Amino acid sequence: MKKFAQLAIPYIVWAALMLILPMALIAMYSFMEQGNSIVSFSLTLDHYVKFFTDPDFLVILWRSMLIAVKTTVICLLLGYPVAYFIARSDEKVQNILVLCITIPTWINMLVRTYAWIGLLSEGGLVYQILTFFGLKDVELLYTEGAVLLGMVYNFVPFMILQINTSLCKMDHSLLEAGADLGANPVQTFRRITLPLSVPGVINGITLVFLPAISSFFIPKLLGGGQYFLIGNLIENQFITVGEWNFGSAISMIMAVIMMLLMMAVKRVEDKNQGGKEE
Amino acid sequence: MKKKSRPIGKTLTILMIAFFYLPILYMMVFSFNEGKSLTVFTGFSLRWYKHMLESRDMMEALYTTFSIALLATAISTVTGTIAAIGLSKSRRIVRDLMKQVNNLPLMNPDIVTAIGFMLLFITFKVDKGYMTMLLAHVAFCIPYVILSVMPKIRSLDPNLADAAMDLGAKPFQAITKVIVPQIMPGVFSGALIAFTMSVDDFIISYFVTGNGVKNLSIMVYTMSKRVNPSINAVSTLVVVIITVALLLINVMPLVLEKQKKKAEMGKRNLLLPIVGAVCVAAVVFLVFGMKKEPSDLPYAGQTLRIYMPGEYVGEEIFPEFEAKTGAVVVVENFDSNEQMYIKVANGESYDILIPSDYMIQRLIQENYLQKLDPEKLTCMEDLQDAVKNQPYDALNKYSVSYFWGTVGIVYDKTKVSEEDLEKEGYSIFLDEKYRGDIYLYDSERDSFMMALKALGYSMNTENQEELDGAYDWLVQCVTTMKPEIVTDEIIDNMAQGRKALGLCYSGDATYIMSENEDMGFYMPLEGTNRWYDAMVIPANAQNTDLAHEFINFISSYDYAYANSAYVGYTSPNWEVMDVLSGVDGDYEGINAYLPRTDYELDEVFVYNAETRKIISNLWSRVKIAASNAK
């Protein structure tokens, strides 16, 4: 027994070095006054104060949260019916449909986002279709709508696949039992299917919200130079401005916000499972 | 269960799948487009595929993407599985703690994980490049493997290994012959997730790479500003590779199934050989990819590392330099001088940098450059006086000019009257007539130059009131005029006449005007920025001989001509400039190609640390204001 436990030791060392240490470094930088050396060690909260007292940064944070929420809601509204339809299809059709939805996620995200530039730019396919329907001079590329579209496009497969998995795991006899006991389809859905799919929905929400709030290439490619989200702000601090300590502080703020959200989600999940057992 | 037709679900599913594939198909179709446009299909052609195969950048990016994915998958699957087996037998407290640690990269936004890795490598002075990218990929892949292997181990009988050992198996045999075959589906799906994550990754690779190592994502990200249909060709190739891989993966479970049956019949387990074969294949692939031909040229086997702006060199320049010297050129690109400065200040080593005037001044001040060796420089007399003895390097001790030019207004002659331009100068950017029809350039210096000049100040002012005035001017522009703030996107968009006017570098204007006759270039009478981009050798360069060789090479007539003719920027070589702008030259009659040199209101940027910081902050405010005004 002991012998096998030793197999974990190399990984524990690796994890300490490659997973814990980087986070510790970010935390350290975020509390350090300036510079990149450990020698000039002086603690400060300035970077956090700077972020929270500047309305411009708060607006960016707010906008990022808002667009992540919008993306998640749209993905849920579009993804749930699709996942439901797939789960109710024949097994063969089901496999093909799941494969159809998985394949695009295998193709590089940047590549797929880049493809939208051509579609949305003036004279592109989407633009022409809208013009055909009489909409003139619409700006598509470099708008918030384009960013939202890019996010939904990239992340909705995660939502569909997660919900679909949990719907497929469901015990179908429950539905029949419900129907036998006189529930109409709407009631069956509300009282049985929906509650049982909650774990999938929660997983889906996590998998969409997390990348949506921190993405910086979708806003950059589809939103243009003047569309700033929190991810762009962090990238900017590290790549062009060179204020690594401030950038680290924003990263810490992001990490903490995400941790709190995850804890909240876990609460909901536990509650949901608790309810099931009663 | 009864089947019902579900028209709404069906329609939605079909639409959804169409939505997923539309961009992919669109991209594939346009990879065969004859023209450069991404919106108009002009005819079938394979030229972008040819271009792709000839582009070393693209082929290397493909190679990096897939070799890293294979290696990272192999390493993380093996180590992840071993770790999972070990953890399952560890004490509960260790296991729970490690579960939390394992969750770190899964629960953190990618950008946070990425920055953690970057800081780690920089703190421990690990040379960034292929190895750091691989390490980072392994690090974020292992948690996924553990996550998918763990439940399978849990579902095993905990006494299984003991039983095997009681029957005489050694611990190693107990694992490979008893445990691993049972958890194979988990290992397999873990490997699959690891591969997907690695191939798809952008953010983490972007922050941990260096030395010109790029994967596909980084390549697309850095090339996306200019229309480049070769990206479509590469993407199509990736779609094909992935489809083949998917087919293989769908066949693999069948193979494994068979193998399982064989194992049951008492035959040898094939798992280890398979994993081994994948590893060996990956290593062979790696070694093969790195093999370079031997040669007896003067600089054979040496490397020249250049750090320069993107899309700023003729296509054949580096290959020809390599053919002539036998050296390998490693190129890395930056978006802005500031980005370059950060890397250099953090100790990354290059042999040649190509920054702008004010940045050269800063690098000299802060001792990041070394003096050029006059004995080795044979090119100085080919260069025109206009590019010599400029304030940033008064005696030409540190730099040799690469391109030079001015900043001005590129405009559509059919939409904008010259009269307006002459009357209003830069203030045409506040003229409501052109609302929603203008581009600003996303550069703090040039935007503030425009605003300061429009207000009649010097662009090198240190006066806070004047800077605030310029800030207000820019905020008024972005809040009332609905400009688009772009960088290199302006080049293709103006060449297609998408907007009426924009602030633009003279060299880009030259290209735009040579593509579209309706376009003009105007240098306002309020004065403008006359700029110089020049080659310098950093203090920590590793191959200064080769660097001097390159400086002479690129300044010589033939290559300076090829470079300037391809990019459109003005050559410092006087003969090249004369020929290109002269009768029957490529840029005959294009005023943007000839910079204005004798106008007293034109200035060259001077570096001032204090002002730079103020302008940098104010410009990010302007952009936020623009973002909020939309």
Helix content of chain B: 55-70%
Fourth-level CATH superfamily of the largest domain in chain B? MetI-like
**Mean pLDDT across all amino acids of chain B:** 87
Q: Which pair has the most extensive contact? A: A-B, 102 and 109 residues
Class of chain A, according to the CATH hierarchy?
A: Mainly Alpha
CATH architecture of the largest domain in chain B: Orthogonal Bundle
Write up this protein.
The complex is a heterodimer of chains A (278) and B (630). Chain A is mostly helical and 278 residues long. Chain A has a single domain, classed as MetI-like fold (Orthogonal Bundle), CATH 1.10.3720.10. Chain A is built from 13 helices and no strands. The model of chain A has no long low-confidence stretch (mean pLDDT 84). Chain B has four domains: 37 residues, no CATH class; 241 residues, MetI-like (MetI-like fold), CATH 1.10.3720; 150 residues, Periplasmic binding protein-like II (D-Maltodextrin-Binding Protein, domain 2, 3-Layer(aba) Sandwich), CATH 3.40.190.10; 171 residues, Periplasmic binding protein-like II (D-Maltodextrin-Binding Protein, domain 2, 3-Layer(aba) Sandwich), CATH 3.40.190.10. Chain B has 24 helices and nine strands. In chain B, α13 links the parallel β1 and β2. In chain B, α3 runs antiparallel to α12 and α17 crosses α24. Classes of the chains: A mainly alpha (278), B alpha/beta (630). Chains A and B meet through α1, α2, α4, α5 and α6 of A and α1, α3, α4, α5 and α6 of B.
